[in-house]
Amino acid sequence: MSFLRFALRRLLEMAVTLLGASFVIFGAMYLAPGDPASFLLSGRSASPAALAAINAQYHLNDPFAVRYFRWLGQIAHGDFGRSIEYRTDVSRLLADRLPSTLTLVAMSLLLVLAIGLLLGWVGAVRGGATDSTILVTTTVAVGTPSFVAAVLLQGLFAVRLGWFPTGGTGQGFADTVWHLTLPAVALALYLIGMLARVTRAAMLEQLAGEHVAVARSRGVPERQVIWRHVFRNALGTVLTTAGLIVSTLLICTVLVESAFSIGGIGQLLELATTTKDFPTVQAISLLIVALFMVVNLVVDLLHPLVDPRITLNDRRSAG
């Protein structure tokens, strides 16, 4: 299967999946107990005229299908509705907060890839006491949830030592990096341990392979053996794990952003869920689903480049 055909097929699958997800997301908001109007009023009493005005403003008297397709049409034009809590367009809220979340995710991903791959490589190649130390360290990292790491790092390095800010995102590149360093570490810690263990296991499997023994018997330098015949062959497994890592980062930002008071998408989702801000919750949920699918698509397209043994037909069968 050609690259273009595979990409077009996956894009079509993504469109269908996103359509199905939009229906579930929109419908889930109306499965909550009680009348949607009561959520909009936040428990306050209202006259029949005021209640009728709310129902008319949010089209609550329209059939479900009519409301859904109207919402879908608005999204197609980039209109996610108006936030009930913030009294502004949801699109503006997303545009203001998305950069902070993407910056945090990017910093965390760099930490995960750099440290996780390095630890996995060193553990597999060195072995012995070094490998044992890395295994213990990564086990502790994997066993530490992001919100626990956030509290510990904030208490030690921000409150007690004062090396980093306790929260916020800062202004300007350097200030933003300074503010987001602790959140990025808290977000990355668990995933560093996971990637290190996966990399180590994949490289050990390759080291035990016959092709490595043949390469060494031919006098191929050890560095070249490790790079070309071990690490490169292990990259397929690592790449699959990297896709899961990005998805996990997007989910765990909710906890970390709340702990560090970062005005990103994660904190916005938590606040919108608490206040029953339906349009905001729906928009963020749909955005996260779309990001998940984009990550999976990128991983599928990169797999044949990383591991020539895998073809697009293999990815199609796996999908």
Automatic annotation (TrEMBL):
It is a multi-pass membrane protein. It is found in: Cell membrane. The chain crosses the membrane at residues 12-32, 102-122, 134-157, 177-196, 238-263, 283-306. Residues 98-299 form the ABC transmembrane type-1 domain. One of its GO terms (molecular function) is dipeptide transmembrane transporter activity. Belongs to the binding-protein-dependent transport system permease family. This is Peptide/nickel transport system permease protein. It comes from Kitasatospora viridis. The lineage of its organism: Bacteria, Bacillati, Actinomycetota, Actinomycetes, Kitasatosporales.
